[in-house]
Structure formats: C-alpha cells, structure tokens
Design brief:
With 362 residues, the protein is mostly beta strands. Helices cover 8% and strands 40% of the residues. It is built from 5 helices and 22 strands. The strands form 6 sheets. Strands 1, 2, 20, 21 and 22 form a 5-stranded antiparallel sheet that branches. It is globular.
Length: 362
C-alpha cells in the first residue's frame, strides 16, 4: 500500500501558494476556540470540558521554517493540530514526552498547507524546523492538512487530508456529482506511518473513491487519554462525517492500515440544528464513548456539541448536549488534565498555537 512519491507540477504548486497568500475568509477569521469550549450550559456529568487556555503550553512556530518544494513557501498561521504522548523507558524509569503535529498555512484555512512537528522539553517547545509532510503525491497537489495522530500496533499512525485539483482528471469524469469545496477540488484521507515521529512513510489514500466520491475528510478514530487508538468490538473504527456523498460512514480495520467502509447513521443532531459539519474527535472514557462535533445551530451560527455512546454499542446514540472542544486532533491527558491545542485565536501573522486544559472550576 506504500504510496510512491510523484513529480508534481511546480507551476501548479507556485500558483496554489500565490492563491493561498490572497486567501480571505471573514467568517473563519473570527472563529475563537473560546466560542465553543470555554462555557457549557448546564452540562450533564458525562460531558468532557469546558476548557481554558494554559499559557504555559503556548507554541510558536519558528519564522525560518524551510520547505522542501523550493517555491518560496511561507507560513503565517498554524492551526488544526494533534497531540501525542511518547513513552520512553519502562517502569519507574519511564518518562513521557508531549508531541505536537500541526498544520501550517500561508493564511488561516488556506490551501498550500504543510504538516509540522514539535516536542515539549524542559526548555519549551522544540520544532523540527521544517515539515514532516509536504505535497509529494498526486492527491496532495493543493496541500496536506489537518493531521490526526494515533498510537497503535507499536507505532505511530498519522491520518491527514490530501487536497488536490481534479480538473480534467479521469476521476472527475467518473464522479461528476461529487461534493467539492471549490469547484474542482478533491479531498482524500491519507495515511503516513512512523516508528519515531521523525521519519514518515506515506501509505496514501485510505477511503476509496467509490465510497468518498472524491471527498472524504476527518479520520476520527476512538482513542484513550494516552492518545492510543482503542479497539471496539475487536476492531478499530473510523467515524467519517464529511463527504462520502453526504452519508455518515464508518471505517473498520484490524491493523489501522487496511480499511473497509460501511454506511452508518451513527449521529442524529437534528435537535440541535439543521446541519452537521464534521465530527472533531472520539474520546474513550471508561466504558463510554463521547463524540465531539461541529454543527450549525438554528440561528445559522457555528456551534459545538457532544454525543454519548456505550462502548458496547458505538453507533447507538444515548444522549446529546450543546458544548464541545472541537479538538480536531483529539483530546489526551497531560499533567492530570485533558488537553488539546488550537491556533484559531492567534493574532494574524504570529504563528502561535495555544493549548487548552480541562477546567474543573464549578
């Protein structure tokens, strides 16, 4: 399943970068993490959160970040990250390291993105100084985005979105009614694997086009507080909520690499609003499973909510309530509390990433 790097059109990479530098979106430019995660209205005991910013964990991407494509690429914004915990050693000698894998883009929510990595040390965050993933495959010609990191099977699995131009391709002709972000843009869930969080092997596309219709986004796999993917009913599950022709879809795998997909109406959020945008993460909490998701409320505004399931019945929704983290890369526990990271609130051009910690204040 290994994906062989392909020679991408340099002119297309340059044109996409130039287009990304002109990107403006008044709606997403005003999104604040606090709008969703800071205050919940009368939450039930099963809900996770709310959250408050932890300034001690703020990350700043270095200004001199190199880019292997050699097109003069620059990053103004870092956002939509994922956190992972690496355990080194055993028993009393074991130590833990917090890793941040993030999306870097010329403008917030623009195309032409790269994926970077940093690790927290006693002296603060140390960045790799360049991307760990950048466009090298045909279905990444417009960027690589929104990483989701999982520990499983003794190694690291990084699912991310590959964005590509479908103009004039055989796939576009085969799926003319596919959902598209911007006319001819396609989105694939891609997978890369690593044993050390430094060297990555791209395995390529995960969701086949006869399922995705050229658009599948967000590989949400249930994981525990240590950032480990959790088997449910003996298998790994993947909740795919955006794309696939508008049909909620679930992936099934025994090894995190090979997946089959089935249609599954696992979430009914109609009581909270007219439209589901995307499931952000799936948290295994004891014998419970909590889905945290992004949706439109009755007033037409962006909103977050959570849904409750039993691990023995991961598609049978038990409860629903407004309020959520929108932790796109998942939640994990660090220094005793659940945490996540997000860069939406950083001032324009600052390349800052803020971390948010579960707030236990009543």
């Amino acid at each position: 399943m290994t994906a062989e790097p392909q020679q991408l059109d340099r002119a297309q990479l340059v044109a996409d970068h130039e287009r990304a530098l002109r990107h403006e979106n008044a709606l997403t430019d005003r999104i604040s993490t606090d709008d969703f995660s800071a205050v919940y209205d009368d939450p039930p005991a099963w809900m996770i959160g709310p959250f408050r910013r932890d300034p001690s964990l703020t990350f700043t991407q270095p200004a001199d970040w190199a880019d292997p494509t050699g097109i003069g690429w620059t990053a103004e914004s870092v956002f939509n990250p994922t956190l992972g915990i690496e355990t080194v050693g055993h028993g009393l000698e074991a130590r833990h390291a917090l890793h941040l894998v993030y999306r870097a883009a010329p403008r917030k929510e623009s195309t032409s993105s790269r994926i970077g990595h940093a690790v927290l040390t006693a002296d603060g965050w140390v960045d790799d100084g360049g991307p760990i993933l950048w466009p090298t495959l045909r279905n990444e010609s417009l960027g690589v985005e929104d990483p989701k990191l999982y520990r499983a099977e003794g190694r690291w699995f990084l699912f991310y979105n590959g964005i590509w131009d479908t103009t004039g391709t055989p796939e576009r002709a085969q799926y003319p009614s596919a959902e598209h972000l911007d006319g001819e843009v396609g989105c694939d869930i891609n997978l890369a694997v690593s044993d050390d969080l430094v060297h990555w092997e791209k395995l390529g596309q995960v969701v086949p086009y006869d399922v995705s219709g050229l658009w599948a986004k967000g590989a949400v796999i249930p994981r525990n507080d240590r950032g480990e993917a959790v088997r449910i009913g003996g298998e790994y599950l993947m909740y795919v909520s955006e794309g696939c022709g508008g049909q909620l879809t679930v992936g099934h795998s025994d090894d995190m690499v090979h997946w089959t997909f089935t249609a599954e109406d696992y979430l009914d959020m109609s009581a909270l609003g007219p439209q589901l945008y995307e499931v952000a993460c799936a948290v295994v909490d004891g014998d419970r499973l909590v889905l945290d998701f992004f949706h439109q409320d009755p007033a037409g505004d962006f909103a977050a909510a959570q849904a409750l399931y039993d691990l023995d019945a991961p598609f049978a929704q038990l409860a629903l309530h407004p309020g959520g983290s929108l932790a796109w890369g998942g939640l994990l526990r660090w220094d005793g509390d659940r945490v996540f990271a997000q860069g939406w609130d950083a001032p324009r051009g600052s390349r800052e990433m803020y971390c948010y910690r579960e707030d236990h204040h009543d």
